[in-house]
Amino acid sequence: MGDPLAQFLIKPLFPIKLGAWDVSFTNSSAFMVVVIVLVTLFTNLAMSKRAMVPGRLQSVAELAYEFVAGLIRDNVGDKGKDYFPFIFTLFMFILTANVVGMVPYTFTVTSHIIVTFAMAAFVFIGVTVIGLVKHGTHWFSFFVPPGLPGWLLPLVVVIEVISYLSRPISLAVRLFANMTAGHTMLKVFGGFVIALGIFGVAPLAVLVALTGLELLIAFLQAYVFTVLTCLYLNDALNLSH
Amino acid sequence: MAEDKPDDLARLEARLKAAQEARRDPSAGGEGPRPSMTGAGFALRAGVEMAACVGVGAGMGYGLDLVFDTRPWLLVVFLVVGGAAGIMTVMRLAGRMEPGAWEGGPK
Q: Which chain B residues are within 8 Å of A167, Cβ to Cβ?
């Protein structure tokens, strides 16, 4: 039975050294490139005809566009339109990375916490900067709930700050944990199929069901990441008090 | 046949107006944007949110301990405060704690 965690190993494909830093082009980088090429090819090919009555491919592209546009409209409102390109890119990247990872022998980019954390930190810092630019120092009132008795203020502000700082961590951990756990489970059941010989039919049946579930999770996690980005953007743009 | 055309146009006009109305509605409504979430999405969120808050609290406490050289007291305090932050975040998530629930102070 193979090591179920071996699939997450990062292997340098082209070793590059930059001074003391190891900036090798790894299998992770390779699959990020694959994901970006796939998304770019898909959106460009699908929209190349710009037909009034969309064909199959164009329908899918329009569906993705409408989906993300709807998310922004529902969660942020009209002000969120300016940020559509970023959120659409984020959604397509995570979704494609998750789905590409479901193909056997590929590498799942989003199964490494540093990748998901980099995205979450980018969202977090970006949203904080947007809030500060749009509202100035008034933005700090976000941490002070209205109508609070004075003696509770220090405690509640500390709680609010911790709650705010936990956002990028929960965002990163959720995506990473779901992808890692799912892929490990698939590999473990795959190992059972071989080890049990003829009785391996039972885990094989489970494996088929799990593959379906993992595809659902691949989509769901991309959706959750996008929705939360929208909600955080909403907090920054529409300061409630 | 000639009468059909203006009729069609009028119908198209009405449909366009309805579509535009539907598009404008969510942001124009008094309630403001409402988060929509599936049950599975919610379940996936709550646990991680709680753990992240406790983790950030512990990290802050440990860091401040190193700065003020008070190990382990701030870690203990911030662990509890982090737990409180986690509970608040999850309650807010569950919609029990609407913005403005603090109004009037604690009861």
A: 52
From chain A, pick out residues whose CB is under 8 angstroms from the CB of B102. Answer: 145-148
Confirm or reject contact between A177 and chain B (CB < 8 A).
Answer: yes
**Model-level pTM?**
0.83
- Residues A123-149 pLDDT 10s: 999 999 999 999 999 999 889 888 888
Instruction: State the best of B25, B48, B92 to mutate against chain A, taking most chain A CBs within 10 Å.
Output: B48
- Report CA A166 to chain centroid distance, whole Å: 16
Is B33 close to A241, i.e. CB distance below 8 A?
Answer: no
At A20, phi and psi to the nearest 5? -85, -10
Q: Is the peptide bond before B72 cis (omega within 30 degrees of 0)?
A: yes
pLDDT tens by residue, A199-212: 999 999 999 999 99
How is B26-85 classified by DSSP, letter by letter? HHHSTT-------HHHHHHHHHHHHHHHHHHHHHHHHHHHHHHT-TTHHHHHHHHHHHHH
Asked if B82 has any chain A CB less than 8 Å from its own CB, the reply is: yes
- Distance CA(A58)–CA(A50), nearest Å, equals 8
